[in-house]
Amino acid sequence: MDSATTPPEGVRDLVVVGAGIIGLAVAWRALEAGLTVTVLDPDPGDGSTHAAAGMLAPATEAEFTEHAALRLHLAGAERWLTFAADLEAATGTGVGLRESGTLTLAYDETDAALLRRVLALHVTHQVDSTEVAVADARRREPLLGPRLAAAAWVAGDHAVDPRAAHGALLRAVAGHPDGVVVPRTAVHLEQRDGRVVGAVDDAEHRHRAGATVVAAGWASAPLLAGVPGVTVPVRPVKGQTLRLQADPSLTPGYVLRGLVQGRPVYVVPRAPATDGPWAGHCELVIGATTEENPDDRRASAGGVYALLRDARVLIPAVDEAALVEVTPRARPATPDNLPLLGPTHVPGLHLATGHHRNGILLAPLTADVVVAGVTGSWFGVDDAGTDPGATLAALRATDPRRFSPSAHDPRTPDGAPG
Ligand code: GLY
After folding, report:
1. What pTM does this model have?
2. d(CA 392, CA 318)
3. Which domains does the chain have, with CATH numbers?
4. What is the pLDDT of residues 222-231, one digit of tens each?
């Protein structure tokens, strides 16, 4: 181990379990707030961050009835702009933020009807989206496929390169004089007098800290199973993404979203690579399957086939691209599809997990909320984006205590007043 990975002596201000984009974003903002920080992860960024396409897409990821999630995602998207600028300034590394908007496409009339219902949902939440004629969509993006029933333009849904952002965060944290990333697995949390006081790793090293943030994706649930007073119902939901390399002339200028006979699919283009084996080519990320399956890290032929079949409906030029990677990973999902953010009932223990399909989108907002919880500073109304009241209500819905048995629940199990 070199000095950037050697466990430091003494008690730290913060231990973060998990060095995916969530854990590292928390660690980096905590370092900026003046805390000393240790991060534990045997393989930083190899979980769902590795598969993620990087869509910053509150509008096109919106689900019916999930109003708090939509508000949270809108606030998350707003926060990315400063986060990316700060991170690029701190590290001198680009994070591949593209503010080029998203074209949403419907394959048949049933898909078009669903697309129009989604656009109506956007109207009720003052989200900017507009149906456009397919011919106009094709003028905007000449690579579109020949058979499309409807199209919409969503100006505010963007994308970032999660691997570039993660790499920059790792450099920012490991390169900070008060930051260290230890390549070890946290096997349990250290508890004393009803408090969490750090984590113990698989080399039996104790990492003591004033506060511990668990940001270990779906693995947060088994890690926390032995801590009385916290219930963390985070489950793995497998997703497969594909990475292709395409000539720039065969690369769309926008993120493409599609509904193809009821199945969602997306294609996220990146700028041409400047170096490496694919210099001059553009990465295309196609995603994603959503499977109630564990994190077996196995790609399925059916999943890959379905993604390619549906993506080539949106953009037939996919056929010409090189398929260079298939990435199966599991997202951390909760029963209400909202993350678990902030302090728990157990002193010293904070959560930053359960982000499901929106871990990349919510990383900057999560970092600010969780660091505010650790430092005891309330997350400011003025910082909460364009609709602070609605965003704060949505943040209250991410309370990590919501699944824990509550002393305030007045009912007995048979429903009678207690
Ligand atoms: N953010 C999209 C997905 O999880 O596939």
Report:
1. 0.95
2. 42
3. 1-98+158-234+334-418 (3.50.50.60), 102-155+236-333 (3.30.9.10)
4. 999 989 999 9
